[in-house]
C-alpha cells in the first residue's frame, strides 16, 4: 500500500488522501482569506456612491424604469422609456441643426439666432443624462460602467465638447453634435445582422486598407519623382506678364508648348486651385487616391501629358488604375459579401431559408389540394347530372300528379302542407338545375383562366400595352394621340374582363390570395376612377394615370415558368428586411455627414465666380451634395471647393479628410453591402433551384420505380428494362 492511499476491500474503489497543499487550496477556496479591496476594486460610483446608496438606487430606478417594477426582466439591449426620451431629444436637436441656414461671412438669419438659443437647453438635458448614468453605473473602473459602452463614450465626447463650446473655449467642436444621430441604430433590431457584418469585417477591411495605403504610398513616391514641380508652369504673356492659359506647359516638345507672344514660365498655383500636384508626399497621396476612385484621373493624365509629353505617362497611370481600382478596392466587396453571408448564417441559422422552403412546399401542396377539390367538384357535378337524367321521368310524372291534385280544391292548396312541399320541391329542382349549369360555366371559366394559353395571351396584352406606352413622344401627330387614347380604353376593357373572369372562376377568396391579382385589382380600379373623373371634369387628374404604367410590372408573371428567375425574385423579397435596415443605416449616415458638412462648410462656398450648385448652406442642399459624393460623381470637384473655402492649399487641406472618409465608408463600404446582399440572395436562389431539381428528380425516380413494379407483375423482362433505364 502507498502512503497516500487508504486500505479497503479488494473490490472497493480506491480512496486517496489529500496532501497538505491540496487541503490548503481547498480551504482557501471554500473559506477565502479576506483581501483588502482598494478604491478601484470596490463598486463605488465616482468613489462615493456605493451599491446601497440612496442616490444611486434612485438613479438606477430612473435609468432602468419600468424594470425592476415590471414582471419581465430587462435585458441589456432592451430600450427603456428613459432611452426613448433621450432619443426624442436627440431627434429634436437634429431637427434644430437641420433648420439652420448658413449665410456668407458668418451671417445668420433671425430664425438661426433663435435656434442657437436652444443649445443650452439641449446641453443641459444631455448633461443630466450623462450624470445620472455615471451615478447609476459608475464611470470607468467597474464592470458595465458608463465608459465601457461605445454609445456612452460617443455621448460623453459630444457632451464634453458642447460644454467647452458653451463656456466660450477657443475652439468650437459643436460639429460633433451630428454624430448623435447614430443613436437610433441601438434601438433597431433589424440592423443587427448588417452592423455585426460590418463590424466583423473591420479587421479584414483594415488589412485591405493597409495594403491599399502601401500601394498608394508606392505610386505617390513614384509620382513624386516624375511630376514634382511640373504642374506650376503655364503660359504668361511676354509684354504684360498676365496668365494666358490654365493648363500646364513644357519648354520643348513633346510637351505642350505656348503660342506666340507667350512664354512657359512659373509661377502658377496649378490645376484645381493648386490641389492636384505631386509637390510633396501628402499632395501626391491625395492625387493618387483621387485617381484610384476613377474620378478625374483622365484630367490628371492630360495635365501630365501637357507638362512632360504623352510618351510614357500611360505606363504610370494605367497600372495605377488596374492595381488600385480594379483589384484592391473591389476586394472590399469580397470581404463584405463573405462576412455578411457568415453572419447571417450564424445569427439566423438559415431559418429564413428553411421557412422559405417550407412555405413553397405548403403553397405547392395547397395548390394541389385546390386542384383536387376542383376535380372533385366536377366529378360530383357529373354524378348529379347523371342522377337527374335517370330520375327525370319519375319526377315529371310525380309533379304532374301533384298539380292535378292541387287543382281540385282551393282549401287544400291553402291549408295542406303537402301541397306547399311539392311546390317547393319543384322550385328546388329548378334551382338545382340552374345551380348545376352555373357550376359548369364557372368550372369552364376556371379551366380557361388557369390554362397556359390564357396566361400567354395576357402576357401578350401586357407587351402590347407596354409598346403603346413606349411610343408616346413629344410633338406626335394627332391621329397617334387619338389611337393611343382609344387603345387605352381597349386595354382597360380587356384587363377588366380578365379580372372579372378570374374573380368569377376562381372565387373572390382565391383570387385575392395572389399578390399579382391584388396589384391588378388596385391598378384597374384606379384606372376606372381616373376615366370617370376625367369624364366629369376634363383636364383634372389625380395622378392615378401613372398607376397604369405600373401594369407593366405584370411582365414578372413570366417567372411562373422560369424557376431560376422565380427563386431569385423570391430570395430578394425574402431579404427585404436586411435591405430596409441597410437603407435606414445609409439614411442616417447621409444625415450625419450632411449636418457635419453644414457645420464645416455652411455659407463658405462663395467664390468670385458663380456660386456652385453643390453646397452645404441648407439641409436639403447638403443632403443632395452628400448623396452626389456617395455616387462618386464629381466628388473631387466638391472637395476642391471645400479646401478652397477653408483657406486653400495653405490652411484648408485638413478638410479633405471629411471627403476621404465619406468616400471610403460611404461609397466603398455601405454601398458595397448592397452588393453583398445581392450576392447572398443569388446563392440562395441557386440553392433553391438545386433543391427543386433534386426533388423533381427524386419524384421522377419514384414514379419510374412504381411503374417498374406495376409492369413486373405482367412482364418481368420489361420491368428490368424500365428499371435499368430509370
From TrEMBL:
Family, as annotated: Belongs to the calcium channel alpha-1 subunit (TC 1.A.1.11) family.
Coiled coil: 675-705
Subcellular location per the Swiss-Prot or TrEMBL entry: Membrane
Organism in which the protein naturally occurs: Scophthalmus maximus (Turbot)
Chief place of localization: membrane
Keyword annotations from UniProtKB, A to Z: Calcium, Calcium channel, Calcium transport, Coiled coil, Glycoprotein, Ion channel, Ion transport, Membrane, Metal-binding, Repeat, Transmembrane, Transmembrane helix, Transport, Voltage-gated channel
Residue ranges of every copy of the Ion transport domain listed in the record: 81-346, 453-688
Name the UniProt record assigns to this protein: Ion transport domain-containing protein
Gene3D superfamilies: 1.10.287.70, 6.10.250.2500, Voltage-gated potassium channels. Chain C
Residues carrying covalently attached carbohydrate according to the record: 260
Amino acid at each position: 500500500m502507498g502512503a497516500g492511499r487508504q486500505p479497503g476491500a479488494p473490490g472497493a474503489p480506491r480512496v486517496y488522501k489529500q496532501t497538505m497543499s491540496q487541503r490548503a487550496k481547498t480551504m482557501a477556496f471554500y473559506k477565502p482569506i479576506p483581501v483588502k479591496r482598494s478604491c478601484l476594486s470596490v463598486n463605488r460610483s465616482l468613489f462615493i456612491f456605493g451599491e446601497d446608496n440612496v442616490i444611486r438606487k434612485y438613479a438606477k430606478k430612473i435609468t432602468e424604469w419600468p424594470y425592476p417594477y415590471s414582471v419581465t426582466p430587462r435585458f441589456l439591449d432592451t430600450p427603456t422609456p428613459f432611452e426613448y426620451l433621450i432619443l426624442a431629444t436627440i431627434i429634436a436637436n437634429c431637427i434644430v441643426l437641420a433648420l439652420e441656414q448658413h449665410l456668407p461671412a458668418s451671417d445668420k438669419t433671425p430664425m438661426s439666432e433663435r435656434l442657437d438659443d436652444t443649445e443650452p437647453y439641449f446641453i443641459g438635458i444631455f448633461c443630466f443624462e450623462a450624470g445620472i448614468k455615471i451615478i447609476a453605473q459608475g464611470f470607468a473602473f467597474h464592470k458595465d460602467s458608463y465608459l465601457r459602452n461605445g454609445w456612452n463614450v460617443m455621448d460623453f465626447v459630444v457632451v464634453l465638447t458642447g460644454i467647452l463650446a458653451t463656456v466660450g473655449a477657443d475652439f468650437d467642436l459643436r460639429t460633433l453634435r451630428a454624430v448623435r444621430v447614430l443613436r437610433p441604430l441601438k434601438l433597431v433590431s433589424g440592423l443587427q445582422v448588417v452592423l455585426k457584418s460590418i463590424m466583423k469585417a473591420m479587421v479584414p477591411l483594415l488589412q485591405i486598407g493597409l495594403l491599399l495605403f502601401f500601394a498608394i504610398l508606392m505610386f505617390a513616391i513614384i509620382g513624386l519623382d516624375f511630376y514634382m514641380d511640373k504642374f506650376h508652369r503655364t503660359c504668361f504673356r511676354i509684354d504684360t506678364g498676365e496668365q494666358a492659359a490654365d493648363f500646364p506647359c513644357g519648354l520643348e516638345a513633346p510637351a505642350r508648348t505656348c503660342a506666340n507672344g507667350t512664354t512657359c514660365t512659373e509661377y502658377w498655383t496649378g490645376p484645381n486651385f493648386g490641389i492636384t500636384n505631386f509637390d510633396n508626399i501628402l499632395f501626391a497621396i491625395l492625387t493618387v487616391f483621387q485617381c484610384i476612385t476613377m474620378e478625374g484621373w483622365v484630367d490628371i493624365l492630360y495635365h501630365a501629358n501637357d507638362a512632360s509629353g504623352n510618351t510614357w505617362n500611360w505606363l504610370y497611370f494605367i497600372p495605377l488604375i488596374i492595381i488600385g481600382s480594379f483589384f484592391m478596392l473591389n476586394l472590399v466587396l469580397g470581404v463584405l459579401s463573405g462576412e455578411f453571408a457568415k453572419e447571417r448564417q450564424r445569427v439566423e441559422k438559415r431559418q429564413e431559408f428553411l421557412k422559405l422552403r417550407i412555405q413553397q412546399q405548403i403553397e405547392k401542396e395547397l395548390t394541389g389540394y385546390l386542384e383536387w377539390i376542383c376535380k372533385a367538384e366536377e366529378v360530383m357535378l357529373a354524378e348529379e347530372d347523371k342522377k337527374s337524367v335517370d330520375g327525370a321521368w319519375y319526377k315529371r310524372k310525380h309533379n304532374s300528379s301533384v298539380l292535378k291534385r292541387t287543382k281540385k280544391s282551393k282549401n287544400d292548396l291553402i291549408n295542406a302542407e303537402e301541397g306547399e312541399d311539392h311546390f317547393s320541391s319543384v322550385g328546388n329542382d329548378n334551382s338545382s338545375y340552374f345551380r348545376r349549369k352555373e357550376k359548369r360555366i364557372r368550372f369552364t371559366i376556371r379551366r380557361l383562366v388557369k390554362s397556359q394559353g390564357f396566361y400567354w395571351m395576357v402576357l401578350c396584352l401586357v407587351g402590347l400595352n407596354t409598346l403603346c406606352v413606349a411610343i408616346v413622344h413629344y410633338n406626335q401627330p394627332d391621329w397617334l394621340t387619338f389611337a393611343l387614347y382609344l387603345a387605352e380604353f381597349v386595354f382597360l376593357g380587356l384587363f377588366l374582363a380578365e379580372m372579372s373572369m378570374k374573380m368569377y372562376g376562381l372565387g373572390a377568396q382565391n383570387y385575392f390570395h395572389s399578390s399579382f391579382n391584388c396589384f391588378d385589382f388596385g391598378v384597374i380600379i384606379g384606372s376606372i376612377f381616373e376615366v370617370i373623373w376625367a369624364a366629369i371634369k376634363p383636364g383634372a387628374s389625380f395622378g392615378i394615370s401613372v398607376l397604369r404604367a405600373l401594369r407593366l410590372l405584370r411582365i414578372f408573371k413570366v417567372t411562373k415558368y422560369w424557376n431560376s428567375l422565380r427563386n431569385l425574385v423570391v430570395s430578394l423579397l425574402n431579404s427585404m428586411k436586411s435591405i430596409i435596415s441597410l437603407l435606414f443605416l445609409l439614411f442616417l449616415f447621409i444625415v450625419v455627414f450632411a449636418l457635419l458638412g453644414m457645420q464645416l462648410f455652411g455659407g463658405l462656398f462663395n467664390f468670385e465666380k458663380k456660386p456652385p450648385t453643390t453646397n452645404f448652406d441648407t439641409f436639403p442642399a447638403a443632403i443632395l451634395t452628400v448623396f452626389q459624393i456617395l455616387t462618386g460623381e464629381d466628388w473631387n470637384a466638391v472637395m476642391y471647393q471645400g479646401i478652397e473655402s477653408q483657406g486653400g492649399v495653405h490652411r484648408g487641406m485638413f478638410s479633405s479628410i471629411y471627403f476621404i472618409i465619406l468616400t471610403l465608408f460611404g461609397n466603398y463600404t455601405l454601398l458595397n453591402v448592397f452588393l453583398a446582399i445581392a450576392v447572398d440572395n443569388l446563392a440562395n436562389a441557386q440553392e433553391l433551384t438545386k433543391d427543386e431539381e433534386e426533388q423533381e428528380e427524386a419524384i421522377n425516380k419514384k414514379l419510374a420505380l412504381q411503374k417498374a413494379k406495376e409492369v413486373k407483375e405482367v412482364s418481368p423482362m420489361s420491368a428490368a428494362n424500365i428499371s435499368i433505364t430509370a
